[in-house]
Amino acid sequence: MDYKYNDSVAVVTGGSSGIGLATVRVLLREGAKVALCARTEGRLMDVASVLKRDFGEDRVLARALSVLEPEAVHSFAAEVKATFGRCDLLVNNAGQGRVSTFADTTDEDWKAEYELKLFSQIHPLRAFLPMLKEAQGAVVAVNSLLALQPEPHMVCTASARAGVQNLLKSLSKEVAPDVRVNSILIGLVESGQWTRRFANREDQNQSRAEWYGNLANSKGIPLGRLGAPEEAAAAIAFLGSRAASYVTGAQLEVSGGLSRSI
Fold first, then answer.
1. How far is Cα 11 from Cα 230, in angstroms, rounded to an integer?
2. In angstroms, rounded to a whole number, what is the distance separating the alpha carbons of residues 249 and 246?
3. What angle do helix axes 18-29 and 41-55 make, rounded to 10 degrees?
């Protein structure tokens, strides 16, 4: 399917690895110009160098910043406007989850997790909504299945993720019909987090395929495997495109069937 991203501009936060980087690549392949940001400058610049080589210097803008710093995000938005002249799609790609129970989650942990999950959405939204409204564009947020299906060992993250989902639903009403707002809810997707856990596996003779397969089975994933970042990116590209022009306030599960709800 042609998602008609030619001549459009997308912004991807957390764009230097995992789902964020996979999303940057698919959007570039579909013809968009892409501005990406991430916190770690060295890695981001290495990634940007490869992207510019593969897709063209004039189609990639990369800036190192924290989305928790509103002034930095607004400066980034101004640079996107000056460089590309518009923003048609904002992909908010929040950080990793926090493993903790209620008993061992401190007040500082609660505050840090809520700040990260909520303000990593709020600050980019505030900065880019004027351009998105002008372009009749779209927002796609990367959220977790934990928002609807909490786990006791991730109580803090699950609670914050639910708050994000409520925010997005409310926003979809407030900014319609000018801007569409949707999200994907991911289950277990291959990432640096799972790569590190594999490296520290108890049985060092176990292959990657075996370890990931056992993990999928232990988690009860019907498709029997973890998702690939590219599979999440494909869902994001669809929701952000004109192919989803009558879809807003929705969430698309990308979880291999892990959801237990209907």
1. 17
2. 10
3. 20
Q: What is the DSSP letter of 85?
A: S
Question: Three-state SS for 109?
Answer: helix
Residue ranges and CATH numbers for the domains of the chain are 9-189+227-254 (3.40.50.720)
Cα 171 from Cα 148, distance rounded (Å): 18
* Non-local CB neighbours of 102 within 8 Å, separated by 6+ positions: 152, 155
Tens-binned pLDDT, residue by residue, of the chain (262 aa)? 678 899 999 999 999 999 999 999 999 999 999 999 999 999 999 999 999 999 999 999 999 999 999 999 999 999 999 999 999 999 999 777 888 999 999 999 999 999 999 999 999 999 999 999 999 999 999 999 999 999 889 999 999 999 999 999 999 999 999 999 999 999 999 877 777 887 888 788 888 888 888 888 988 999 999 999 999 999 999 999 999 999 999 999 999 999 988 7
Torsion angle in degrees (nearest 10) through CA of 158, 98, 41, 26: -40
8 A C-beta contact, residue 149 and residue 161? no
How far is CA 237 from each of CA 37, 60, 144, rounded to the nearest angstrom?
18, 17, 17
Residue appearing with tokens 């990260």: 116
For 36, phi then psi, to 5°, come to: -125, 150
Q: Measured between alpha carbons, how far is 186 from 229 in angstroms, rounded to an integer? A: 10
Q: In whole angstroms, how far apart are CA 21 and each of 7, 14, 229?
A: 20, 8, 8
